[in-house]
């Protein structure tokens, strides 16, 4: 029985079949973005971002997604959302402060 196109493409992206589960998730996200012709993938993991760019995708992380939602009017208080993100994730406060300052807000 032959391997499916998705399986062989996933193996190419992940590398060795002995890679850990996170490698498969990375590859799955990238493959889905490519299959949907999304042109952009939502990824925070640095290795995944590099791999996605190498595959010709633009990359946006959680912070970029929240900024876009704010600019489009879906979020009214970006600072409050960034505070929640800081409290419940492993995000670097310096990144959040940098993005807030770029938008004309005071740091957290």
Structure notes:
By secondary structure, the chain is mainly α. The protein has 2 domains: 5-60, no CATH class; 62-102, no CATH class. The chain is built from 6 helices and 2 strands; from the N terminus they run ααβαβααα. The chain has a two-stranded parallel sheet with strand order 1-2. The N and C termini lie far apart (56 Å). The model is unreliable at 16-21 (pLDDT under 50).
Summarize the model shown.
The protein is mostly helical. It has helices at 5-14, 21-35, 46-54, 62-71, 78-88, 93-102; strands spanning 40-42, 58-60. It is built from six helices and two strands, in the order H-H-E-H-E-H-H-H.
Can you give keywords for this protein?
108 residues, mainly alpha, 2 domains, two-stranded parallel ribbon, 6% strand, elongated
Portion of residues within helices: 55-70%
**Total tally of structural domains:** 2
Tell me the major beta sheet: 2 strands, parallel
Give the number of helices: 6
> What order do the strands of the largest sheet run in, or round the barrel if closed?
1-2
Element order: H for helix, E for strand: HHEHEHHH
Per DSSP E runs of 2 or more residues, the count of β-strands stands at 2
The Cα radius of gyration reads 17 Å
Indicate the proportion of strand residues: 5-15%
Shape: elongated
Which regions are unreliable across 5 or more consecutive residues at pLDDT < 50?
A: 16-21
Mean pLDDT: 83
Structural class: mainly alpha
């Amino acid at each position: 029985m032959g391997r499916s196109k998705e399986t062989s493409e996933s193996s190419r992206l992940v590398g060795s079949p002995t890679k850990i589960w996170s490698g498969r998730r990375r590859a799955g996200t990238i493959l889905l973005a490519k299959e949907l012709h999304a042109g952009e993938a939502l990824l925070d993991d640095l290795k995944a971002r590099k791999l996605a760019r190498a595959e010709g995708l633009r990359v946006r992380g959680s912070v970029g997604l929240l900024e876009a939602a704010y600019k489009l009017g879906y979020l009214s208080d970006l600072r409050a959302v960034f505070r929640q993100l800081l409290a419940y994730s492993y995000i670097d406060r310096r990144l959040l402060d940098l993005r807030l300052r770029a938008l004309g807000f005071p740091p957290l």
